[in-house]
Amino acid sequence: MRAARLPRLAATAIVLGVAAALTVPLAAHAATTTPAPTPTVEPEPAGAAVPETGGVQGDPYPGDAALEAQLVASEERRLIDVRAISNAAGWTNVNQGRPYRLVTGNTYTLVLIRREAPYTLDDLLEYAPSTFVRQPDGSYLLSENIVVEQGATLQLSSEEGLVLHMLSTPNAFVSIVTIGGALKFGGTDDKRVEVTSWDPVAKVVDSTTADGRAYLRVTGGHAAFSHVEFHNLGFWSGSTGGVSLTGTAAPETLSADEDQNRETETESEAGPTVYGTDIYPAGGAELLNLAPDLGGYSYVSAAIDDVHSRDNAFGMFITSAEGVDIRDSTFDNNLVDGLVLHRGVSNTVVHNTSASHNGVDGVSVTRAATGVILDRITAGENGRNGIRLEGGPLADGPSATGTATGDYGNNTVSNSLVSGNGRYGIEVVGGENLVIDGNSVSDQQMGIVVADAVTGVTITDNIVEHSDEHAIALRGGVTGATIQGNSVEGGTVGIFLRDASGLIDRNTVAGVGNHAVTLIRGVEESTISNNVVSGRGPSAIDVARAGIEPVVENNDTEAWQGTKPLDVILRSIFQPLTVMWILLGLAVVITAFTGLRSRRHRQGIRHPYESHRSLDQLTAGVADPAALGRAPRATGEGQTA
Q1: Could you tell me how far CA 521 lies from the centroid of its own chain?
Q2: Could you tell me which of 303, 327, 297 has the C-alpha nearest to residue 185?
Q3: CA distance 52 to 521
Q4: Is there a contact between 199 and 207 (Cβ–Cβ < 8 Å)?
Q5: Is the peptide bond before 37 cis (omega within 30 degrees of 0)?
Q6: Which of 187, 235, 262, 412 is spaced 20 to 30 A from 213 at the CA atom?
């Protein structure tokens, strides 16, 4: 009997073991993927999550990080030395009113001092006959550094065209830097100005950044570039990246009346007054009335028209600038970013400009840049983003520099064509009062992404097509958003909000493969209204995980084809208790089947009503009916009777 029970016990143990093994993982999976209080909501599909950080970061920089950083620091020290000597020379008048030359490292630096007339090609040929030389092919080779002081202007232009080669070899490179002065390059539509690095021995441009490379930098003052081509310039940092416009903190300015009042107070016997207190000279010391000369420490301004900047470290890097106007220009094929509007850039317009095939971003507007208008930008095939706007605070509390903690914004991207970039088309990270309007965005991992507590972003009348994941995604505390009048084609989710809220109204979403609109963990009440959606997926409007109940009204979902993935269907059927009861039922069936087979094997096939058969049926076919049922009896001789 015990041997007969072993198959049944083994079958029961196996079935219960399988039930336990399957029930625990399914219960755990349901607990992690099913939000309360609706346990049957399908989880977010694979690939739908928006990465917080990381992901595609652009093309790797090809240079030598350690060596190039040292070269940047060396250039900063050289310019500090030149500035100090320049100030001393101005006080002592040792320059006698003429440009002068300094020995700086393994090259010379020609300092152009203040004067009303601009310095031209002829002036450079006069002041630098051995370091600014016309070549047999008509180009000019510059083999020493040039510094343009405040009040001076270097103007290199020609109606016949101009090619300026700047020395850049493995052993040395040169630069043109203004310190409060102005730099102007001007050509024509047919005869452009070309500025590039040059190795006179190899007779080729310098394509290696590891040992430094020639560059231009406007520090304060003004830049005016028209019909110019800059290429193969710069290395490592924004300030040495090729063509850079770097201002500093804006100096305090006084009105004419305030300036006159200050002069009157200084000339009075009582001396100047500070906070209502008269300040007198100490003893017989002379009272000096010298205003600080801060002209070299001001914001930079620029007019950029028809400029092509390519194959540089940065196409163009601008910081601490006001009133910059960039039109009809291209910033392509640069190692890092095409156009960078760094901190302190304000009231700047970039119009009808291309930034494509750059290593990282096409156009990058960083924190502390306000009042920037990007209009009719073409940004394609960049290593990371087409256009990136940052507007978060520079600090979140007291800091070493005392930086303000407020957000930045009031920036606009409009009427632009953004396609084929490595990660996102347009990315907005932090900031307030931002407008993304009338753009065509296609063929990126995601089309338009807004993140990190952006307040008051308006995304209107954009066409977003062929995104790999989300077409429009808002996440990370975005509030007060308006997503209106956009046309979305393709992607897993048309409009995706996570930890965000806003108005989603009058959008057209088609051809998506999961949801037209998804709202997860809204931070405020959102409204989803008057949208026309089509596609295939579990649901058209997914708000089961919204947390705060949104207003959902007047959406046209008739063309939506509802489907559920196989794994969702299986999980809805095979709930943990369902699986357990099914397996227990199988255990009973298997146990009954194995018991029946065991009895038949031991006893053979018997009539089920054997005990109810008649005597005639029992004796039929028996030779001696009297002997039926009689047991053999043993005799004394060991025989049976």
Answers
A1: 23
A2: 303
A3: 16
A4: no
A5: yes
A6: 187
